[in-house]
Amino acid sequence: MTTVFDTKQDNMNTGLEKTLPDEKNYKMIAENVSVYYDGIQSIKNVTMKFRERSVTSLIGPSGCGKTTFLRCLNRMHDMTKNARVEGRILLDGQDLYSKDVDPIYHRRKVGMVFQKPNPFPTMSIYDNVAAGLRLNGLRDKKILDEIVEDSLRMAYIWDEVKGNLKKPAMELSGGQQQRVCIARALAIQPEVLLMDEPASALDPIATQKIEETITELAKEFTIIIVTHNMQQAVRVSDYTGFMYLGDLIEFDETRNLFTQPKNELTAKYVKGQFG
Amino acid sequence: MMSSSNQKRAEYRTLFKQNVKGRLVVDKIVMGVVFGCVVVALVPLGSILLEVFKNGISALSIEFLTQTPGAIGSGEGGIGPAIQGSLIIIGMSSLIGVPIGIMSGIFLAEFGDNRLGRTIRFFNDVFMEFPSIILGIFAFLTIVLILGHFTLWAGAFALSLIMFPIVARTTEESLKLVPLTYREAGLALGLKKWVVTFRIVISAAKSGMLTGILLAVARIGGETAPLIMTVLGSSQFFSGFDAPMDALPLRIWRLSLLPYDSAQMQGWGAAVVLIVMILAINIGVRYYFSTKGKRSGLVSKIIGGKRK
Question: What does the pLDDT look like over B150-188, one tens digit per residue?
């Protein structure tokens, strides 16, 4: 594991500067979150705190509940009929699951990037990025142009697409599509960005670009990323949570979790002994 | 242990690699059967088209397409009112049936995963199989009898009843084909569910929905029985929505019953016109929607202009 660390010394240094966060700096807090599918518990009392302007990775073997947990954070389970979520998720101190909260306003603060690139199929690159704004009622062409360019720049794809924004987004490569999707999520000016294995369908070069994007974005956003790739977690994240069978086994600064895991299961997993 | 499992694998391989020739033969036979079935299905279609055009083409002329029918058996006059009536009735039925059908389809696809949805879907399916004459009688009883005369409205009502279950079902199926991930992406952008449905899901399902609508148009274009009960038929051009009207299937039916060769020939001619009309509507609508996306053509520039 040490070799992985050596390659990313820079990242670690920035991580070192950050002291353990105090309560006030938490952007998002998940308290005792449980998820049931058809009455079967698949997330068990997970409590996690996410610091403002940081990257938190969720790692763990397939089926451990990483994605399920991530989808709680913007109420994506509302769509699933047989899913039930318990516990509290606080965004800036407000409970996402309280009855008087409209999930729509929260989702505007919490952007999401999905595992498979999913640009809207009938729309151009421009229309995709502008979709969240236009369909939320923004009509001003000048401002739209501005935000679309800004978002595409933030997602590190502006230079590749600036000449043909009218091109259907589906004609881009997978990695480009994914970055357009990141731009689309950023365009609605979220404060938190959820990413569900954003690079799992991409080749190493596209993956590297996405990771660079994440590192840049972390200066402004709170990012929570699910990943299968432990090296990726090490490269991009300040904090890492290890999940197993619906439990959060260990949650610590990335450096600590990978070098001095406190739990035996975590140690085995990060050494690649199971997973 | 290794060698014994290798042995087993070798044995397994012999089990399914045998008889390659036999499988090739089966492959050919299946291909042949499939091809044969296609031919069997196409032969009647082709022969009907051939027969209709062979008999009907000679009846076509400018007068035939534009004039009112002449004296019975004279072989004079045309089917102008029938063409006009068919277009009006198809238009009116579509105006009623398509929006209701699309809305029902959206409901079934997006909100229909419950008992109410299943019930509606069941009745919708039953409705789709209803004999059209019963719908005609229904329109006759509810509109014609109450108003006391035959009217275009009754015809449009009866045909829209045939139309909307078809449109509803095809809309539902097309919407269900749109992957969940686009809906999720839309919701994750903080969009309301109906915005996601109307602006994202529908635009992805547009082509399938269009096919359903055109199928329904073709279906009502040829309906005769409900029209007998509702618009009756007429030899005059359009004289108001509250009056009887002619339609191509009605005209074909009447002409074919007459014992004169000239009338029979005009009937074949009217059939040609009906087929060509449905075909033209199909091609025209598809062409319009396929060029609209590319923003070319005068019509789309005018109608689709607001979208930049």
Answer: 999 999 999 999 999 999 999 999 999 999 999 999 999
Q: Which helix (H) or strand (E) holds B4?
A: helix B2-17
A38-42, A187-191, B3-7, B94-98: the lowest-pLDDT one = B3-7
The ipTM value here is: 0.83
| Nearest chain B Cα distance for residue A110, angstroms | 8
| A202 falls within a domain | yes
Residue B256 region by backbone torsions, left for phi larger than 0, else alpha for psi between -120 and 50, else beta: alpha
pTM: 0.81
Nearest CB partner across the interface for B191, out of A112, A122, A135: A135
In this predicted model, what pLDDT tens digit does every residue of B116-153 receive, in sequence order? 999 999 999 999 989 999 999 999 999 999 999 999 99
Residue A41 lies in a domain: yes
CATH number at residue A87: 3.40.50.300
Mutate to test the interface with A, among B189, B307, B308 (most CBs of A within 10 A): B189
Could you tell me the residue range of the domain that residue A55 belongs to?
2-113+193-270
Domain count, chain A: 1
